[in-house]
Design brief:
The complex is a heterodimer. By secondary structure, chain A is mainly α. Chain A is 80% helix and 0% strand. Chain B is mainly α. Chain B folds into two domains: 2-124, Four Helix Bundle (Hemerythrin (Met), subunit A); 125-167. Chain B contains six helices and no strands. The longest helix of chain B has 26 residues, at 50-75. Classes of the chains: A mainly alpha, B mainly alpha.
Chain lengths: 109, 167
């Protein structure tokens, strides 16, 4: 017996929910950022599962490869985003001595 | 066998992800993220994407997690693992569970009961992926390289000490 496609999607949906929870409850900017990485991984998992499902239904290998290339692009953009985001946190910390999201309220009306 | 491996690593993904979100110590949270990412790499292998699994381990656990560890130790936020207040927590948990349930219902309606035949050798071959990545998608591939260069440059400029700009 093989694993049904829905199980992978269920794991991805639960992981995305956990990531959402993290973004909402953590007050440290770095921890919120970690949760965003979790959400990105959930989406990657669902993309790979969708690609496999599509490939099996259409019998088209190119469709599977499209999904895999898309996931590769997402991973590369996530790496770039992590570098920029963490550099921003360092810059903010130098200026404000904190990265607590509740205290970074300069642009609040 | 495949089901057993899937269940083990799916449970590992969810438990370690919860530890990432809920643990007070950021170092432990990042270490738990390593477990999550490697388990997702195992799920990638099960889905017939061994190359993506390798890239996941290399780029995520090798580069991004180390970057997170560096910044956490640099900024000394180890004691600052605080979370939101009680009411905020309940609302956030409700929103997260609600959103997950919505996704599950949508996936259930569309993908429940779809059979998934076992992987064949042609499904996991690397040559077609290389042809797609460096042939069909050569331009996006090069643009990602450019994006990474821009990101590295920008990160260097952003994280540079401000007092050096005056000299």
């Amino acid at each position: 017996m093989t694993v049904p496609i829905f199980w992978y999607l269920a794991v991805a949906a639960a992981l995305f929910g956990i990531g959402t929870l993290g973004v909402l409850i953590r007050r440290s900017a770095i921890m919120a950022f970690l949760s965003i990485e979790l959400m990105l991984n959930a989406v990657n998992l669902s993309i790979v599962a969708f690609a496999r499902s599509l490939g099996e239904r259409t019998g088209d290998l190119a469709a599977v490869l499209d999904g895999h290339v898309l996931v590769l692009m997402v991973i590369a953009v996530a790496a770039a985003e992590a570098a920029i985001g963490l550099a921003l946190f360092i810059a903010v910390y130098r200026r404000r001595r904190t990265i607590d999201l509740n205290r970074l309220n300069l642009m609040r009306w | 066998m495949e089901v057993a491996v899937f269940l083990l690593f799916a449970a590992l993904v969810l438990v370690s992800a919860l530890v990432v979100v809920l643990h007070r110590n950021p170092i432990y949270a990042v270490m738990s993220l390593v477990v999550t990412l490697v388990s997702i790499a195992v799920l990638f292998v099960l889905l017939g994407a061994p190359f993506l699994a390798a890239i996941q381990v290399l780029v995520y656990t090798g580069a991004i997690v180390v970057l997170f560890l560096f910044v956490i130790m640099l900024l000394n936020v180890s004691g600052d693992g605080s979370t939101a207040f009680g009411l905020q927590k309940i609302v956030a948990a409700g929103a997260a569970v609600g959103f997950s349930t919505l996704l599950l219902v949508l996936f259930w309606g569309r993908f429940e009961g779809l059979p998934l035949p076992p992987l064949e050798e042609a499904d996991v071959a690397l040559r077609p992926l290389a042809r797609a990545l460096l042939g069909t998608y050569l331009l996006p591939f090069e643009m990602v390289g450019l994006l990474l260069l821009a990101a590295v440059t920008a990160a260097t400029v952003l994280a540079r000490r401000a007092d050096r700009e005056k000299t």
